[in-house]
Write a structure and sequence with these properties.
The chain is an alpha/beta fold. The protein has one domain: Rossmann fold (3-Layer(aba) Sandwich). Helix content is 42%, strand content 15%. It contains four helices and three strands, in the order E-H-E-H-H-E-H. The protein has helices at 35-47, 66-72, 79-107, 123-131, and strands at 27-30, 52-59, 111-118. Strands 1-2-3 form a three-stranded parallel beta sheet, with helices on both faces. Helix 1 links the parallel strand 1 and strand 2 (52-59).
Length: 137
């Protein structure tokens, strides 16, 4: 996968990475809203400052957190309504988490973009595919 922003971090004359940037590389972070994920953003920004970054969230079944599912169940008219509500609210939850990750990454100097992907499992393989690398066996 070619990143259209990769040349932004290269010096025009020598085509060498600018030492003050992510070296022309795209950074993909998986952010789940937990404190260790926020710490990983901070540490990564120290190692690869000022580059383009994608904050990814792989949205997998059951498509909403356990706390959200518990909150939605009381008062539901039936299973179909419940499943539709989980889909809708789970997507909103994924978007919200990714937006928080983008805010954190932007605050650390990255040009961050949200990347929410729905998957039926295999989060690691999905992230590898997003990064353009080979999927693990």
């Amino acid at each position: 996968m070619t990143d259209p922003h990769a040349s932004d971090a290269m010096t025009a004359d020598a085509r060498q990475p600018d030492p003050g940037t992510a070296g022309g590389q795209r950074v993909i972070l998986s952010y789940d809203g937990l404190v260790p994920a926020a710490a990983a953003i901070e540490a990564s920004a120290r190692l690869l400052p000022r580059g383009p970054a994608y904050v990814a969230y792989i949205w997998t079944p059951p498509y909403a957190s356990k706390a959200l599912r518990r909150r939605l169940w009381p008062g539901m008219g039936g299973v179909n309504d419940y499943l539709a509500m989980i889909e809708r609210e789970g997507e909103a939850e994924a978007d919200r988490l990714t937006a928080m990750g983008v805010i954190l990454a932007s605050a650390r100097g990255w040009d961050a973009t949200a990347l929410v992907e729905r998957s039926c499992g295999g989060e690691g393989a999905q992230l590898a595919q997003l990064a353009g690398g080979p999927a693990p066996p």
